[in-house]
Automatic annotation (TrEMBL):
This is CXXX repeat peptide modification system protein. It comes from Clostridium cibarium. InterPro entries: CXXX_rpt_assoc (IPR026413). It comes from the Bacteria.
Length: 99
């Protein structure tokens, strides 16, 4: 695995991405717990649709945030790479699987 530091996020940038990630995690948790809830099949289907829609909106916001940040700081991130953020230090790294 290849890991390279891209730079540091500002506090507000770190908080923005953390909020998006926490929302994603919460929606995924809701999706996982949906079957164990005492709702009718129709209610479960409706909730499932709403959760999926929220996940899609969140994904669009995440991609926009990433696009805005990479453009702002002129970071180059390949299609196969992913980013890792150290929320303690606000450092952002590019992580790529070695072939």
């Amino acid at each position: 695995m290849f890991k390279e530091k891209l730079g540091n996020l500002k506090l507000n940038e770190r908080e923005e991405i953390l909020m998006l990630l926490e929302r994603k995690w919460a929606l995924e948790e809701l999706m996982d717990a949906l079957d164990s809830q005492p709702y009718s099949d129709e209610e479960k289907k409706d909730l499932h649709i709403r959760i999926v829609a929220d996940l899609e909106k969140n994904q669009v916001a995440y991609k926009k945030w990433m696009s805005d940040i990479t453009e702002k700081y002129h970071w180059k991130i390949g299609d196969e790479a992913r980013c890792k953020i150290d929320f303690n230090t606000s450092e952002i790294f590019i992580v790529q699987q070695s072939e």
